[in-house]
Design a protein that fits this description.
Layout (H helix, E strand, L loop, with lengths): L2 H24 L8 E13 L2 E12 L5 E11 L5 E3 L1 E2 L2 H10 L16 E2 L3 E11 L3 H5 L3 E8 L4 E5 L2
Antiparallel strand pairs: 1-2, 2-7, 3-4, 3-6, 3-8, 5-7, 8-9
Protein backbone atom coordinates (compact mmCIF):
# COMPACT_ATOMS: atom_id res chain seq x y z
CA UNK A 1 0.00 0.00 0.00
CA UNK A 2 1.42 3.33 -0.99
CA UNK A 3 2.09 6.08 1.50
CA UNK A 4 -0.39 8.46 -0.19
CA UNK A 5 -3.19 5.89 0.02
CA UNK A 6 -2.49 5.23 3.71
CA UNK A 7 -2.57 8.96 4.53
CA UNK A 8 -5.80 9.44 2.54
CA UNK A 9 -7.38 6.46 4.28
CA UNK A 10 -6.37 7.80 7.74
CA UNK A 11 -7.75 11.25 6.94
CA UNK A 12 -11.01 9.73 5.63
CA UNK A 13 -11.43 7.61 8.80
CA UNK A 14 -10.75 10.64 11.00
CA UNK A 15 -13.40 12.69 9.15
CA UNK A 16 -15.93 9.85 9.50
CA UNK A 17 -15.12 9.47 13.23
CA UNK A 18 -15.62 13.22 13.76
CA UNK A 19 -18.92 13.12 11.86
CA UNK A 20 -20.18 10.21 13.98
CA UNK A 21 -19.07 11.93 17.21
CA UNK A 22 -20.83 15.12 16.09
CA UNK A 23 -24.09 13.26 15.47
CA UNK A 24 -23.90 11.62 18.92
CA UNK A 25 -23.15 14.99 20.52
CA UNK A 26 -26.11 16.67 18.83
CA UNK A 27 -28.47 13.84 19.87
CA UNK A 28 -27.46 13.80 23.56
CA UNK A 29 -30.79 15.21 24.83
CA UNK A 30 -33.05 13.30 22.47
CA UNK A 31 -33.94 10.36 24.70
CA UNK A 32 -36.25 10.39 27.71
CA UNK A 33 -34.33 9.87 30.92
CA UNK A 34 -34.65 10.88 34.54
CA UNK A 35 -32.00 10.85 37.25
CA UNK A 36 -33.19 10.42 40.82
CA UNK A 37 -31.60 10.72 44.24
CA UNK A 38 -33.08 10.03 47.69
CA UNK A 39 -33.06 13.03 50.01
CA UNK A 40 -34.86 11.70 53.09
CA UNK A 41 -36.58 8.45 54.12
CA UNK A 42 -39.06 8.37 57.00
CA UNK A 43 -41.00 5.41 58.39
CA UNK A 44 -43.78 5.17 60.96
CA UNK A 45 -46.09 2.44 62.27
CA UNK A 46 -49.77 2.62 61.37
CA UNK A 47 -51.01 -0.56 63.02
CA UNK A 48 -49.41 -3.68 64.50
CA UNK A 49 -48.78 -5.23 61.07
CA UNK A 50 -48.82 -2.14 58.86
CA UNK A 51 -46.49 0.79 58.42
CA UNK A 52 -45.80 3.69 56.10
CA UNK A 53 -42.72 5.05 54.38
CA UNK A 54 -42.31 8.59 53.06
CA UNK A 55 -39.47 9.17 50.61
CA UNK A 56 -38.40 12.66 49.60
CA UNK A 57 -36.32 12.63 46.42
CA UNK A 58 -34.82 14.91 43.79
CA UNK A 59 -35.31 14.19 40.09
CA UNK A 60 -33.44 15.73 37.19
CA UNK A 61 -34.54 15.66 33.56
CA UNK A 62 -31.49 16.10 31.27
CA UNK A 63 -33.52 15.48 28.08
CA UNK A 64 -34.89 17.98 25.59
CA UNK A 65 -38.43 16.71 26.28
CA UNK A 66 -40.63 16.83 29.36
CA UNK A 67 -40.99 13.67 31.44
CA UNK A 68 -44.65 13.04 32.30
CA UNK A 69 -45.40 10.47 34.99
CA UNK A 70 -48.01 7.76 34.64
CA UNK A 71 -47.39 5.91 37.92
CA UNK A 72 -45.02 6.00 40.89
CA UNK A 73 -44.42 2.90 43.01
CA UNK A 74 -42.16 1.98 45.93
CA UNK A 75 -40.65 -1.44 46.55
CA UNK A 76 -38.87 -2.53 49.71
CA UNK A 77 -36.05 -5.05 49.31
CA UNK A 78 -35.33 -7.05 52.44
CA UNK A 79 -31.96 -8.50 53.46
CA UNK A 80 -32.58 -11.61 51.34
CA UNK A 81 -33.31 -9.56 48.21
CA UNK A 82 -37.06 -10.24 48.22
CA UNK A 83 -39.17 -7.31 47.05
CA UNK A 84 -42.43 -6.12 48.58
CA UNK A 85 -44.36 -3.43 46.74
CA UNK A 86 -46.13 -0.81 48.81
CA UNK A 87 -49.50 0.75 48.15
CA UNK A 88 -48.79 4.30 46.93
CA UNK A 89 -50.79 7.06 48.61
CA UNK A 90 -52.46 9.82 46.63
CA UNK A 91 -51.63 13.48 47.39
CA UNK A 92 -54.81 14.05 49.50
CA UNK A 93 -54.08 10.83 51.42
CA UNK A 94 -50.47 11.93 51.95
CA UNK A 95 -51.65 15.26 53.41
CA UNK A 96 -53.99 13.40 55.75
CA UNK A 97 -51.19 11.00 56.68
CA UNK A 98 -48.93 13.86 57.77
CA UNK A 99 -51.78 15.44 59.72
CA UNK A 100 -52.55 12.20 61.60
CA UNK A 101 -49.09 10.63 62.07
CA UNK A 102 -46.87 13.13 63.91
CA UNK A 103 -43.88 10.73 63.81
CA UNK A 104 -43.47 11.57 60.11
CA UNK A 105 -42.72 15.21 60.85
CA UNK A 106 -43.30 17.96 58.33
CA UNK A 107 -44.41 17.49 54.70
CA UNK A 108 -41.74 19.12 52.54
CA UNK A 109 -42.67 18.28 48.96
CA UNK A 110 -45.67 17.52 46.77
CA UNK A 111 -46.23 13.96 45.55
CA UNK A 112 -45.15 13.12 42.01
CA UNK A 113 -48.44 11.82 40.66
CA UNK A 114 -49.92 10.79 37.32
CA UNK A 115 -49.84 13.53 34.68
CA UNK A 116 -47.26 15.59 36.63
CA UNK A 117 -44.14 16.37 34.66
CA UNK A 118 -40.57 17.53 34.94
CA UNK A 119 -39.68 20.16 32.36
CA UNK A 120 -36.69 19.66 30.03
CA UNK A 121 -33.30 20.39 31.60
CA UNK A 122 -34.78 21.01 35.06
CA UNK A 123 -34.76 19.57 38.56
CA UNK A 124 -37.66 19.00 40.95
CA UNK A 125 -38.05 17.81 44.54
CA UNK A 126 -40.96 15.41 45.07
CA UNK A 127 -42.13 12.79 47.55
CA UNK A 128 -43.94 9.48 47.60
CA UNK A 129 -45.76 7.86 50.52
CA UNK A 130 -46.53 4.14 50.52
CA UNK A 131 -48.21 1.74 52.92
CA UNK A 132 -46.65 -1.66 53.57
CA UNK A 133 -48.46 -4.53 55.26
CA UNK A 134 -45.44 -5.29 57.44
CA UNK A 135 -44.38 -4.09 60.91
CA UNK A 136 -42.20 -0.97 61.03
CA UNK A 137 -39.28 -3.04 62.38
CA UNK A 138 -39.21 -4.91 59.08
CA UNK A 139 -39.01 -1.58 57.19
CA UNK A 140 -36.13 -0.52 59.44
CA UNK A 141 -34.24 -3.77 58.70
CA UNK A 142 -34.59 -3.40 54.92
CA UNK A 143 -31.77 -3.58 52.45
CA UNK A 144 -33.13 -0.64 50.45
CA UNK A 145 -36.16 1.07 48.93
CA UNK A 146 -36.56 1.39 45.16
CA UNK A 147 -38.72 4.10 43.57
CA UNK A 148 -40.06 3.29 40.10
CA UNK A 149 -41.57 5.97 37.86
CA UNK A 150 -43.40 4.90 34.70
CA UNK A 151 -43.47 7.58 32.02
CA UNK A 152 -46.65 8.09 30.01
CA UNK A 153 -44.97 7.03 26.74
CA UNK A 154 -43.51 3.82 28.18
CA UNK A 155 -40.11 4.77 29.60
CA UNK A 156 -39.35 3.39 33.06
CA UNK A 157 -36.98 4.93 35.58
CA UNK A 158 -35.85 3.26 38.80
CA UNK A 159 -33.56 4.67 41.44
CA UNK A 160 -32.68 3.17 44.78
CA UNK A 161 -31.67 4.12 48.27
CA UNK A 162 -27.91 3.93 48.74
Amino acid sequence: MSRTLAISLAIGLAVIALAVAGVFYLQRGSHIDLHGKFLKVRTAPLEEHASVVVIDYRIENPADFKFMAQAVTVTMEDKNGNGTQGQTASEPDARQLFANVPLLGEKYNESFKARDFVAPHSTADRMVAARFEVPEAQLQERKRFVVRIDEIDGAVVEFAEK
